[in-house]
């Protein structure tokens, strides 16, 4: 009996050891499984983080690509505009050269023609004094051609021809100054000549675009030395800004006329008292040349003012503006000339652009 009991105890102890080993193996397997799960979870979280980082990087690259494409588009458009201006300069210079030669020939000979005409009229006067009663044939001819009128009008015609040819010479000179093909590089120039040539180029718009109202140009030129700049590019800036000023004056006049149609005569007084004016002021400020161009046009609000130098931004109707004029102007002044271009405007009152360029290259 005792022996059976001991045998059973041994069997139980053996079974317990076997069970203990199984439990230890199960625990090891459980720990290993937990570690595997933790590794899988950590790996899964790592993959998720990497995917998030990749998504963020992709979004940043997409934004950079979009911004780069926008810059490339703006640069391409600016290059096209620059090429247009360059081609225009070549065309203008060629026309000016071709016109200049015959105009000089005409203008140079008008003085001789005037002198000859005066001498012929003086000779005719002598004939009339010494032969006051010509034969009937000559008397009829004098009456038919109205000799007295011809004598008065002949000199006036020659004077008007002289004034006209002089005007053409001034226009040709302005065209040559505006194109500045010989000044594509950095060179010291007279800023006022560039402004005057730009106004001459825009004379047609200044005189005829506002109906019966002529744009008043006020020049307040300071005593400026010759300025080191890219004259052709600077003239491009001037024509952009002054053209915009004319547009603003037109818009204000159109607004007044539109108000007139709605208020039964209210705009009559507004139009009568509105004098379209562009004022150009130059001065030297601590070795910086200041050019201020202001108008009393429609004006623009602050939100628009903050965007006007952005490429492709325009407030003009489709087909009337590319949105590149002021953007190119900003690039020419700020980047090319290391200067400043600022705009201040009050809606309904007017706008002023201020150009600041160093007297000499920095």
From TrEMBL:
Q: Please give the PROSITE patterns that the UniProt record associates with this protein.
A: HIS_KIN
Q: Which Gene3D superfamilies does the annotation name?
A: 1.10.287.130, Histidine kinase-like ATPase, C-terminal domain (3.30.565.10)
The GO terms this record gives for MF are: phosphorelay sensor kinase activity
Coiled-coil segments: 2-85
* Enzyme Commission code: 2.7.13.3
Q: Which reaction does it catalyse?
A: ATP + protein L-histidine = ADP + protein N-phospho-L-histidine
Going by the UniProt record, its keywords in alphabetical order are:
Coiled coil, Kinase, Phosphoprotein, Transferase, Two-component regulatory system
> Where in this chain does the record put each Histidine kinase domain?
94-361
**What would be one Pfam family of this protein?**
HATPase_c
Q: Which domain of life is it from?
A: Bacteria
Name under which the protein is recorded: histidine kinase
What organism, scientifically named, is this protein from? Nostoc cycadae WK-1
């Amino acid at each position: 009996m005792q022996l059976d009991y001991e045998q059973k105890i041994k069997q139980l102890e053996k079974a317990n050891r076997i069970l203990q080993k199984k439990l230890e193996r199960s625990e090891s397997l459980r720990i290993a499984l937990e570690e595997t799960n933790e590794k899988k979870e950590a790996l899964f979280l790592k993959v998720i983080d990497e995917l998030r980082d990749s998504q963020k990087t992709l979004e940043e690259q997409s934004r950079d690509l979009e911004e780069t494409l926008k810059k490339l588009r703006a640069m391409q458009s600016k290059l096209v505009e620059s090429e247009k201006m360059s081609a225009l300069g070549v065309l203008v210079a060629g026309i000016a050269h071709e016109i200049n030669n015959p105009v000089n020939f005409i203008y140079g000979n008008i003085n001789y023609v005037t002198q000859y005409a005066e001498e012929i009229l003086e000779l005719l006067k002598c004939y009339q004094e010494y032969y006051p009663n010509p034969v009937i044939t000559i008397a009829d001819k004098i009456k038919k051609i109205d000799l007295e009128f011809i004598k008065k009008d002949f000199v006036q015609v020659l004077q008007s021809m002289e004034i006209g040819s002089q005007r053409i010479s001034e226009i040709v000179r302005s065209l040559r100054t505006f194109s500045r093909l010989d000044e594509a590089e950095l060179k010291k120039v007279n800023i006022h000549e560039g402004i005057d040539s730009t106004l001459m180029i825009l004379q047609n718009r200044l005189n005829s675009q506002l109906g019966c109202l002529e744009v008043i140009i006020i020049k307040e030129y300071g005593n400026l030395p010759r300025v080191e700049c890219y004259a052709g590019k600077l003239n491009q800036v001037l024509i952009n800004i002054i053209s915009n000023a004319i547009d603003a004056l037109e818009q204000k006049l159109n607004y007044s006329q539109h108000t007139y149609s709605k208020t039964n005569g209210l705009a009559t007084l507004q139009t009568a008292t509105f004098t379209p004016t562009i004022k150009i002021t130059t001065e030297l400020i601590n070795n910086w040349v200041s050019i201020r161009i202001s108008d009393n046009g429609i004006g623009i609000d602050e939100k628009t003012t903050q965007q006007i130098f952005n490429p492709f931004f325009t407030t003009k109707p489709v087909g009337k503006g590319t949105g590149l004029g002021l953007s190119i102007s900003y690039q020419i002044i700020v980047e090319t000339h290391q200067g400043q271009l600022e705009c201040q405007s009050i809606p309904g009152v007017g706008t002023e652009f201020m150009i600041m360029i160093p007297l000499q290259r920095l």
